Amino acid sequence: MSPITPLVPRQPVPDLAVDLVGGGTWSLAKQKPENFTMVVFYRGLHCPICKGYLGDLAKKADEFADLGVNIAVISSDDAERASKAKSEWHLENLDVGYGLSLDRAREWGLYVSAGVGKTSIGIEEPALFSEPGLFMVRPDGTLYFASVQTMPFARPAFGDILKAVAFVNTRGYPARGEVVDHKAAASEAA
After folding, report:
1. Is the pLDDT assigned to residue 66 strictly greater than 80?
2. Is the pLDDT of residue 91 over 70?
3. Residue 155, in any domain of the structure
4. Structure confidence at residue 2 (pLDDT)
5. CB-based burial of residue 144 (10 Å sphere; 0-12 exposed, 13-18 middle, 19+ buried)?
6. Helices first, then strands: H and E counts in the chain
7. How many domains does the chain have?
8. Within a domain: 76
9. Are 135 and 177 in contact (CB under 8 A)?
10. Which of 31, 53, 108, 175 could form a disulfide with 9 if both were Cys (CB 3.0 to 4.6 A apart)?
């Protein structure tokens, strides 16, 4: 498996295309949002925290649309598990993608875990699966914001993200964290 390389704000993100529950393909390159595409990577059907997290997102999807944000939620689950998540978790208003390869997950800086049996809701974890991540991508395909986690807990709250997007849209706040070589940048500033 490839090593994790963090993505850099203001730089292009990797290509991303996945099959969608219900048919068709979701492609980041084909997104034409007014302001952002929000890509939410979730652990899969086995994760009770993902269920609540994505349920909250589904309730706020119209608010994100009003702020010019397209949304996709994606996992490394297979079609059957992703279909169950979409229907059982009431995600009808979200694009639910599946079949994310672990190599592609690593390109996005996601961590990968090995399954350890059944979760608290009695669903078997896959042998390998990607951990959560949330990315806000500008219409030009560059990264604006990223949050990547090794665990399912303490993810960015969608209410907070809505407030942040409203602020960013109003104020034109730039992407931060863009400095790759801080020593060279410090030398140039001196």
Report:
1. yes
2. yes
3. yes
4. 63
5. buried
6. 5, 9
7. 1
8. yes
9. no
10. 175
Residue 87 in any domain: the answer is yes
Expressed as residue numbers, the domain containing 77 is 17-170
Report d(CA 26, CA 20) in Å as an integer. 6
Both structure tokens of 177: 């964290």
- Do the domain assignments include residue 165? yes
Q: How does the average pLDDT of the chain come out, rounded?
A: 94
Could you tell me which residue, 2 or 91, shows the higher pLDDT? 91
State whether residue 87 is helix, strand or coil: helix
Locus of tokens 């589904």 = 58
Note the pLDDT tens digit of each residue in 171-185: 999 999 988 877 776
> Which two structure tokens, joined as six digits, stand for 137?
């991508």
Cα 161 to Cα 21: distance, rounded to the nearest angstrom: 25
Asked whether the CA dihedral 36, 15, 45, 156 is positive or negative, the reply is negative
Instruction: Give the largest Cα separation in the chain, rounded.
Output: 58
